[in-house]
Each structure stands twice: as C-alpha cells, then as structure tokens.
Amino acid sequence: MQQLLGPGDPPPYAVFNVKGKAPLLLLCDHASKAVPKALGDLGISEDELSRHIGWDIGGLEAAIELASVLDAPLVASGYSRLVIDCNRWPGGEGSIPEISDGTHVPANRDLAKAEIDARADACFWPYHREIDRQLDLMTAGGRAVAFLVMHSFTPRMNGFERPWHVGVLWNDDPRLPEPLLAELRRDPSLMVGDNEPYTARDAYEYTLNAHPRPRRLPYCSLEVRQDLIGTSDEARAWGRRLAPAIRAAVAAALG
Ligand SMILES: [Zn+2]
User: Fold this and answer.
1) Does an H or E element contain 131, and which?
2) Where are the chain's structural domains?
3) Which of 92, 211, 214, 222 has the smallest count of CB within 10 Å of its CB?
4) What is the CATH code for 13-254?
5) pLDDT under 70 in the chain at which residues?
6) Ligand 1 centre from 29 Cα, in Å?
7) What residues are neighbours of ligand 1 (ion), with CB under 5 Å?
C-alpha cells in the first residue's frame, strides 16, 4: 500500500508528560488540524479547516495544562478529524466526513477502500496503538488507572446556543463521571452538562469503547466550550481551573 505520510509531515500522535506519575491517562482525539501534504488542503479553505469541524479548538492546550498540573501522561492525535476522525470507527459513519456542519470536503468524496485504509494506517491506528501501549505500561502489575478524553465543543449548533461551560460524557460506568460531575458542580458559576452537549452512550464513540471499556477502567470524556478556550492563555487557565475536580474524581473512582 502507498504510504500517506512523507518527509515534512508531522507524526500521527504526540505524547506529553510521558513520565507523569498520576494514575490517569489523558487523551485528546481532535488535537490537531494538520493535513498530510499528499492530501493538499482537502479542497477547503484554511478558515474552514480552522473551525470546529477541523479540530477541537483549545482542546490540546487545555489538556497539556491538565497533564502538567495533574502530573499525568497525555496522548494527542496528530491529524485533523477531517482527514480521519480518531473517535469514529474506521470505515464507519462520520469517520471521513464528506460534509461536516454544512461544509463539503471535496477530498473526502468517493474514496476507494485503499485510500480509506491508507488514512487509517497513517493517522488513526498509530494513535490508538500508542494509547494501548501507554495503558499497558500504566496498568502493569495490576495498577488501577483512570482514562479521561478532553474534547471541546462549538458554542452554536444548528441555531442552538449551548449554555453549558463544560460537559461530562459517559456511558454505563459511573465510577469516574459521577464524582467528576459532583466536583464540578461545587463551583456554582459553572454550568455543567451531564451527557450534554452530546452523549457518550452512542455506539459511534470509538475511543471510549475501544480502550477503557474492555479493560474495565473508570473513564469519561470532558468537553469544554470552545469560546472559553479560544486563546492559549484561556485554554491553559481552564486547564488549571478544572484540574482539582479531576484529581478528586480520579481519587474517588480508584477508591
Ligand atoms: Zn473532540
């Protein structure tokens, strides 16, 4: 198969704070808006690529700050979700969207299976193999660890103004999300969504279903509204603001 990535392309994932001692692995599925050189600009403008359809605005910087404050390792994806979405099943719904929030992506139209496989092999599987590798290392000897995926969400969708500042997304394991919701709600100025603005109870969620769930690790996603973390300073400040609640929730979850 032809290699999608070439010289000058960034790596498909990055690991931050790899020696972090906390019993917590942080993830960022939509950390980057990079596109492999071989795919050009995907047929869309830089402005479109920089919208929430291309990546989670502010998500990586908030996650890096969390990793630092909590002393936890962080694995972040290396390519735009419009190349291939690291939180969707490869070949499945939404994996390589032809249209995202009204924007047509010409480079994603009528792909042959070999082209889909090349994107998955270059940009999807290396990230997920690294998550598995980190979890294997962290859980060696039966050590208990928690799993938290950072995302950010657009403040408006289909004409609806989303009121939440942050949202906790979870499925059927309450060990991490319930204490996290309780800790976040101790701050009365924070509007906290419980499986809002999305639910993690949908089968299309890849990362949570592929990693922590089969390993029976406590897990959830944490979403932050993008207009709150649009600058580097804001993203880092929100990382610091959210860290104590996460630390307490992880301690409660691992009991
Ligand atoms: Zn995301």
Assistant:
1) helix 125-138
2) 13-254
3) 214
4) 3.40.630.40
5) 1-2
6) 6
7) 30, 56, 151
